[in-house]
Amino acid sequence: NYANDSKVYRSISQYYKIPIENISIGFGATDLIQRVINSIKIDKLYIVNPSFMMVDVYCKMIGLDYEFINFDQVDDVKKKNNSGIYIVNPNGVNGEAVEIKNYLENFKWAVIDEVYSDFFNKFSLLGNSSSNTVIIKSLSKSLGIAGLRVGFCYGSIDLINEVQKLRMSQVTTSVASLVIPEIINMTPEVVFRMKESKTLLERQFDCKKSYANYVLFKAENEYTKKFGSKNVDGYFRMALADKDTLNEK
Predict the structure, then answer these.
(1) Do the strands 230-232 and 83-88 form a parallel or antiparallel pair, or are they unpaired?
(2) What residues pair up with 65 in beta bridges, in sequence order?
(3) In this structure, what DSSP letter does residue 144 have?
(4) 56 φ/ψ angles, rounded to the nearest 5 degrees
(5) What is the C-alpha radius of gyration for the chain, rounded to an integer number of angstroms?
(6) Contacts for 190-196: CB closer than 8 Å, 24+ residues apart
(7) Of 91, 126, 127, 149, which residue is 20 to 30 A from 104 by alpha carbon distance?
């Protein structure tokens, strides 16, 4: 059966308290990142390291000039004419989170990837962004359901109308359209359980402090061996699970 995406729209609008006309949903955050990059009219996109690995690919696909920069270089490039910036905050690679609002005003467009912001919303711009900012979110991260393939972006009505022009005929699955309205209000509960595990693990092991839904261990341990991990900049990155799952035999 085809998905009833109107239910997903309404549930996102109600839960995050943002106008439905300022929302576009997509087949995961990656779908929306690509559609947004195609919709903003800029000459160059500055991609702040570390970043989601497909952003430069999407730029190449449409012939958009781009450049990778570090966060401490943002001040040096923000006065460039007709440019945009892409920032993941909190970061999906190093787990860092920064105050970025004051850096965005001199860019024509700011694309802020907040797929992890339910785990640390101190710097979130969702609902408070300016007209030149678009926020991208992923429900699979916040609800702990990998592969759910439901993302949304929030921005001005004019931009959202452009993003909608590039949507597929189906932007979510029938399963997601049934599940999301029933469980989206459980987001705080799910996030709490994940953060509870994170606090426990960071106290028990030597870790790099991070603000996303994973732990960055400085050495392998019983959990990385049990659940697997990814080597990131010398750290062992392990996705979060609740305490009951961690302690399953």
Answers:
(1) unpaired
(2) 44
(3) T
(4) -65, -30
(5) 18
(6) 190/142, 190/143, 190/144, 191/118, 191/119, 191/142, 193/242, 193/243, 194/119, 194/144, 194/240, 194/241, 194/242, 195/119, 195/240, 196/242, 196/243
(7) 149
> Averaged over 183-194, what is the pLDDT?
94
91 has which bridge partners?
none
**Residue 161 banded pLDDT, cuts 50, 70, 90:** very high
Q: Please say if the pLDDT value at position 81 is more than 90.
A: no
The pLDDT assigned to 77 comes to 84
Q: Is 181 exposed, middle or buried (0-12, 13-18, 19+ CB in 10 A)?
A: middle
Q: Is the per-residue pLDDT at 100 higher than 80?
A: yes
Please give the DSSP secondary-structure letter assigned to residue 152. Answer: E
How is 35-87 classified by DSSP, letter by letter? HHHHHS--SEEEEESS--TTHHHHHHHHT-EEEEE-GGGHHHHTTSTTEEEEE
Report the C-alpha gap between 17 and 210 in whole angstroms.
Answer: 27
Instruction: Reduce the DSSP state of residue 190 to 3 states and report it.
Output: helix
- Overall average pLDDT of the 115-133 stretch: 91
Place of tokens 């408070």: 128
150, 139 Cβ separation under 8 angstroms: yes
Q: How far apart are CA 213 and CA 240, in angstroms?
A: 6
Contact 149, 27 (CB under 8 A): yes
pTM higher than the cut 0.90: yes
List the structure tokens of 31.
Answer: 């779908």
- Asked if residues 231 and 212 have their Cβ atoms less than 8 Å apart, the reply is no
